[in-house]
């Protein structure tokens, strides 16, 4: 099932997600639906708040951005994740977000992370990631903390984007996937 993707301006995107309890819901179906929704929108990551669910869950499927860099393709669901460590010299990368169409901006993040999470079979994992995969995980992890990539921008950049962001929240944005706008009349 493909969910509409919640657009910038909806309060669920600013809300910290709740942990999922084992057996509380059909988490496998939810994970499948999130992958389907993400692929339909050509995304590399999608967090539960982006489909209107205030839960600590996100999915990623990264294609290596640069064939020459030895980056793995990682397709995974992260349930109740906790980033345990973020290390290294911050690097800038242009991020986008399915909830914020047509805006891309450089965001600074640390390159190395260690994360603990459950998969959709409730197996617990602790893993390390770096580079682009770490970047995608950090972006999605922010979502379940109620943080958007635009929150990381300078006050100056935020001021420049204010009008565009207001338009997105009102539904004045072209997107080739179905979206849910909180302020659309
Ligand atoms: Ni996003």
Question: What's the gist of this structure?
Answer:
The longest helix is centred in the C-terminal third of the chain and has 15 residues, at 155-169.
Fourth-tier CATH superfamily name: Peptide deformylase
| General shape | globular
Radius of gyration: 16 Å
Helix content class: 10-25%
Class per helix and strand makeup? alpha+beta
The average pLDDT value, as a whole number, equals: 94
Number of helices: 3
Going across the biggest sheet, name each strand in turn: 2-3-4-7-8
Under the CATH scheme, which class? Alpha Beta
Query: Ligands bound here?
Result: nickel (II) ion
Q: Which CATH architecture?
A: Alpha-Beta Complex
Q: What's the helix-strand series?
A: EHEEEEEEEHHE
Distance between the termini: 26 Å
User: Which residues form runs of ≥5 with pLDDT under 50?
Assistant: none
Largest sheet: 5 strands, antiparallel
Query: How many β strands by DSSP?
Result: 9
Question: Which percent range describes the beta-strand content?
Answer: 25-35%
